[in-house]
Write a structure and sequence with these properties.
668 residues; alpha+beta; Calcium-transporting ATPase, cytoplasmic transduction domain A; Rossmann fold; 7-stranded mixed sheet; 16% strand; elongated
Length: 668
């Protein structure tokens, strides 16, 4: 928050064993210290009014002024000793001056209203952060662990790497791990926003907070509770809430010089006015100007909006790293979508194998699998899954944008896209497969074509709905892919996308982002495998399905933790709503200051009226900022997608996932 404001900042409590330090922030509105003091000051002031203008009444009003001032004077004095001048300084000078001039009632009213505004700001921040930390409540208070053949109950923070957690049906995982025994279905809705349970078996990852929806399983602990995916998410979003977007920096740039400028203006009004009339009258007006021009509403307008909006996005299943990413999301006019793993299911399978010459299907698959053996790319996994045997190739080298070459049993192999490898006699077959939407790779042995392998990754079922929703938001949609033009066009037509760029290498995607921008803000959505250059070039890069991927979570500005594309238009609509709230708050704050200063300087409004109007404006700004946490599901978005608490989107605007090995990722 800007130094121009003096409100307290505390975060909400976190469960034990979560890896996040707990605090003792207020859980109810009446527990906020500033509001308690404001209530005390209001009671004292009302009592003083009722008693009347005598020694006791004046004493109660003075006590009211002291109680109200206790919320901001100590902090203002501490800041002043550190050489920092802020809104609290203005309020302190105005309160002391009002008392010195005998306007004790006005000073008390200033303290009451300012304390209410500060208390509401404090409560709003704590509430939004507590909503975020509610994610950590997904971690159970105890975990069942098998140690030396005996099942015992331990707290999550007592788990150690290598422990075997026993998850019975309905139980939640206390930390991240890998299934070592059993098979089940996992409910990840509270983590990734996915409404459909995921089948999981031996070797599959289980994230903290996942619910076991099937049979009992044994999960080997791979991360301490303090380092679990949920704890990382909360840490990252809390850090993101402190990042400043351009709107927040604008508020800071205005508020910081405004405070000393106001003090200079007040001094000029008091000094010059004293030469023209009654010094006490102009001194009083100068004090009123100090209050009228106080930029606290401006200083809190953007930070509080960012805290509310980022927290709401995280509870929906989106990680947005700070105000800068949030603002850019609200201005996006073009979205470029990578094909593999983003528009498609990211679960390709081999649909056809076309041997050339005397080669057999098994020979073609074995040769391709030998080169793909160390690749983690989905297309490589499809080939490996289809091959009966996987011989060991040596000297395997990737040629970015083309394919792989290596040596198997003394013979040279090449695997790659048509064009890099000559299609030869399989020309007709390759065209047929590509027109059917399959990705075709060719395998060559000692310069002779061995065969073609067709791999198809099905379009996500929600993709056409998502594209339609993006268009309704006024967002242009394009598809980028390293695949061939025929395959890309067939899949894009199925999704409803007319702008297609195919046969792209990673660096080509980055160059296309620049050309496609056309003066508009552009977002690149990819799976982080080979999209890093484009993700970094776009105003906002959005990593898809980044749950549990350290590189994506740490480097992205926005990351979709789940695999449901419907989060994307929902997130863009939410960011646009938050940006509108930011602009409304800044406009209201500046308008109030612009109107009150001349009215105060010429004596049209007194201290009590200015205090009331100014603090009312601050309350309105706070209440409006809280609106940024409201999210409305887009038409067609299911309740499960729109309202599921989760941690969703991180976009890689400073670099994405690093390439995970060689293989088809070099091709597609």
């Amino acid at each position: 928050m800007s130094d121009a404001c003096c409100g307290p900042q505390e975060s909400a409590p976190a469960p034990a064993g979560s890896g996040v330090e707990p605090d003792h922030g207020p859980t109810r509105l009446w527990q906020v210290r500033e509001l308690q003091l404001a209530a005390l000051a209001a009671v004292l002031l009302a009592t003083g009014w009722l008693i009347g203008d005598n020694l006791i009444g004046t004493g109660l009003e003075l006590a009211s002024a002291v109680a109200g001032a206790a919320t901001f004077v100590p902090g203002a004095v501490r800041n002043l000793l550190r050489g920092r001048i802020g809104v609290g300084t203005l309020m302190t000078i105005a309160a002391i001056g009002a008392v010195a001039l005998g306007q004790i009632t006005e000073a008390a009213l200033l303290g009451v209203l300012f304390s209410i505004a500060e208390g509401l700001e404090h409560y709003a921040i704590v509430r939004t952060r507590r909503g975020l930390r509610a994610l950590l409540a997904l971690v159970p208070p105890t975990a069942s662990v098998l140690r030396e053949g005996t099942e015992i109950q331990v707290a999550p923070d007592e788990l150690v790497l290598g422990d075997r957690m026993l998850l019975r049906p309905g139980a939640r995982a206390a930390t991240d791990g890998v299934i070592r025994a059993g098979r089940t279905s996992l409910d990840l809705s509270a983590i990734t926003g996915e409404s459909v349970p995921v089948e999981a078996g031996l070797g599959d990852v289980v994230h903290a907070g996942a619910i076991n929806g099937g049979g009992a399983i044994e999960v080997e602990v791979t991360a301490l509770a303090a380092d679990s995916s949920l704890a990382r998410i909360v840490h990252i979003v809390e850090q993101a809430q402190d990042r400043k977007g351009s709107g927040q920096r604008l508020a800071d740039r205005i508020a910081r010089p405004l405070v000393p400028a106001i003090m200079i203006l007040a001094a000029l009004i008091a000094g010059l006015g004293a030469l023209l009339g009654d010094p006490l009258v102009w001194l009083e007006r100068a004090l009123v100007v100090l209050v009228a021009a106080s930029p606290c509403a401006l200083a809190i307008s953007i930070p509080l909006t960012v805290v509310a909006a980022v927290g709401a996005a995280s509870r929906q299943g989106a990680l947005v790293k700070g105000g800068a990413a949030l603002e850019e999301l609200g201005r996006i006019g073009v979205v470029a979508l990578d094909k593999t793993g983003t528009l498609t299911r990211n679960a390709p399978r081999v649909v056809d194998v076309c041997p050339a010459g005397n080669a057999t299907r098994e020979e073609v698959l074995a040769a391709a699998a030998a080169l793909e053996a160390r690749s983690e790319h989905p297309l490589a996994r499809a080939i490996l899954a289809a091959a009966a045997t996987v011989p060991a190739a040596t000297d395997v080298t990737a040629v970015p944008g083309h394919g792989l070459h290596g040596v198997l049993d003394g013979t040279a192999l090449r695997l790659g896209k048509p064009g890099w490898i000559t299609v030869g006699p399989l020309h007709a077959e390759v065209e047929r497969l590509q027109e059917a939407g399959a990705t075709v790779v060719l395998i060559e042995r000692d310069g002779d074509l061995l065969g073609a392998i067709a791999v198809r990754d099905e379009l996500r079922p929600e993709a056409p709905e998502v594209i339609a929703q993006l268009r309704e938001l006024g967002v242009e949609v394009a598809m980028f892919t390293g695949d061939n033009a025929r395959t890309a066009t067939a899949l894009a037509a199925e999704a409803g996308i007319s702008t297609v760029r195919a046969d792209l290498r990673p660096e080509d995607k980055a160059a296309l982002v620049e050309r496609l921008r056309g003066g508009r803000r552009i977002a690149m959505v990819g799976d982080g495998v080979n999209d890093a250059p484009a993700l970094a070039t776009a105003e906002v890069g959005i990593a898809m399905g980044a749950m549990g991927t350290d590189v994506a979570i740490e480097t992205a500005d926005v990351a979709l933790m789940g695999e449901d594309l419907r989060h994307l238009p929902q997130l863009l609509a939410h960011a646009r709503h938050a940006r509108r709230v930011m602009l409304q708050n800044v406009g209201l704050s500046l308008a109030i200051i612009g109107v009150l200063i001349p009215l105060a300087a010429f004596g049209v409004l007194g201290l009590a009226a200015v205090v009331f109007v100014h603090e009312l404006a601050e309350v309105l700004v706070i209440l409006n900022a809280i609106r940024a946490a409201r999210t409305k599901p887009l038409p067609g978005v299911t309740a499960a997608v729109a309202a599921t608490p989760a941690a969703l989107s991180l976009a890689v605007a400073g670099g994405g996932n690093q390439q995970g090995g060689s293989g088809c990722c070099e091709v597609c």
